[in-house]
Amino acid sequence: MQQFVFGVWDYVIMAATMIASIAIGLYFRFSGGKQKTNEEYLMANRNMSILPVAVSLMASFMSAITLLGVSAENYYYGMQFVVINISYGIATPIISRLYLPVFFGLQKTSTYEYLELRFGPQIRMLASLTYTFQMVLYNGIVLYAPAIVLESVTGLDRLISILVVGLVCTFYSTLGGMKAVLFTDLLQSLLMFVAVFSVVVFSAMQVGGFGQIFVLAAEGGRLDMFNFSIDPTERNTWWSLTFGGLLTYLSLYAVNHTQVQRLLTVSTLDRSRQCLWWSWPVLSVLSIVTCISGIGIYAAFKDCDPLTYHGITSMDQLMPYYVVSAMRSAPGLPGLFVAGIFSASLSTVSASCNALAAVTLTDYLSRWCVIPSSYIPWLTKLAACAYGLIFLALAFMAEYLGGVLQAAFTIFGAVGGPLFGVFTLGMFTTFANERGTSIALLSGMALTLWISFGGPRPPPVKLPLSLEACPFNVTAPVPAALKTVDYFYPYRISYLWTSPIGFVWVLAVGSIISLLWRQQHPWERAMKPHPDPALFTPPLAKRLRAKYGDKAEVQCELLKKNDVQELH
Among residues 358, 375, 350, 383, which one has the least CA distance to residue 171? Predict the structure, then answer.
């Protein structure tokens, strides 16, 4: 495998990126309120400006794995994937009008506090534990995967990669809190754009122009974006990308604590909506350019595919391998690219450190023991630091866990749909209860994880690849004998349908059980006969206020003051 050793300028750029991130953390540690309160540390005093929040919303989930994976997806399976950006545009007004007003009105630190106000303490604990497990596993892989990819093609030691990214991220997010996370996301997002744009520019120069990228991609069958098949077993279609992408985006941006926490760091609901609306084009531009980078690399490698001749060992190594091949003659550019890839990991991990610290203090420690107010800020910072170190430990363990990379993505998708269904049941119905919703969540996650993990699974079919123009003798691999395998149908379903399946299951099962199996918890007796409009989506809340007036809000004032335990 071809390797490239970093030069002086590459290391200088990498070091400058890390130093700048640390400097931002130190600045916010010793300026302003100096992170002495949880309100500043976790919520940035709820007075952030729109730009850093909007960019951070994008950066929180555009990890290095996403950048590397999307480019490879378009290279090997075509540009059909770009259709997913339509779902982002559909989801944004839904979140802005139907979900965000509920969270903003309650002004809670943890998203899962809503579930206790609406249902009860058990479902809150179940959901927050699920979220914690999901994010811990995912972020360990976020640190590990780019390190092994970059080591394999650049010779950059994975131990150094994991330690540098993990420790730098833990340091600045622990010291500087939410403000440091948001402003470092600005810097890191810029580097992410530079990394991906540099691939597009160099590939265009290599093949004779930007338009030539699309000409060559079309000849290779990479520009077919009009697969309207309704077969759910096909990898990418308009329907799976639109509906599957819609549910995935909603599960991340409408109810996921990492994103909701950012949306609550501004002063008004209108400003929060502006953050959400501005994050959409930022995300879509990066997503589309990353898709184009994939076909740009295809145009350069179309007659000598590196995966086929074993120049690389996995699809995710494709983009770094191209950088090694095309940019090695430009001092500093490979370092700038690696800085962009590492920045994608930094932004994701730092967001998770802060978000998980909020959940730990609010959903766990504050419920299980009485903590003096003077200790709370220190415990929160300790929790953020602890999660960063846990991510580091898991990153090193990931090497020995075999298929954990695919497992992490599977869990991330499979958990999101059912959790989104739980919040939707709470906000859009008045009859859903804790027992029905809890059973629906557990059974929904069991279903989606079974569908995602079950096997054997049919291998995805790549578009045609070639070795005709390789500058060395390469023998094309002999295709394995075709075997007729009757794969179990649920295991053939596209990964994009996992979230919709989990979402629909939770809505259906939760509704049926809630209607058939009424429970009489003290919370429910407090809510009846007038549910609190503040806990429901605006259209339903408007109907409740018209029906019951202000009595419902007065009746549930105890709940809104966080005195829920008095009702149990």
Answer: 350
Sign of the torsion angle spanned by Cα atoms 157, 343, 6, 210? positive
Contacts of 1 (CB under 8 A, 6+ apart): 152, 153, 310, 311, 312, 313
What DSSP line would sit under 15-83, residue for residue?
HHHHHHHHHHHHHHHSSTTTT-SHHHHHHGGG---HHHHHHHHHHTT--HHHHHHHHHHHHHH-GGGGG
Determine how many CB atoms are found less than 10 A away from the CB of residue 497. 20
Q: Give exposure, 386-404, as e/b (b: 16+ Cβ within 10 Å).
A: bbbebbbebbbebeeeeeb
DSSP string, 480-521: PPP------HHHHS-GGGHHHHHHHHHHHHHHHHHHHS----
Cα 340 versus chain centre, distance = 17
Give the residue carrying structure tokens 């809340």.
541
Cβ-based neighbour number of residue 465 at 10 Å = 19
Alpha carbon distances (Å) from 437 to 90, 260, 376: 27, 21, 32
Is residue 324 scored above 70 in pLDDT? yes
What separation in angstroms does the CA of 436 have from each of 328, 511, 519, 526? 59, 7, 9, 19
Place of tokens 């766990």: 364
Cα–Cα dist 134/416, whole Å: 9
CA distance between the termini of the chain: 63
Q: Is the peptide bond before 479 cis (omega within 30 degrees of 0)?
A: no
pTM above threshold 0.70: yes
> Residue 465 in contact with residue 474, Cβ under 8 Å?
no
pLDDT tens per residue across span 343-378 = 888 888 888 888 899 899 888 887 777 777 778 888
DSSP state of 531: -
Contacts of 501 (CB under 8 A, 6+ apart): 417, 447, 448, 451, 493
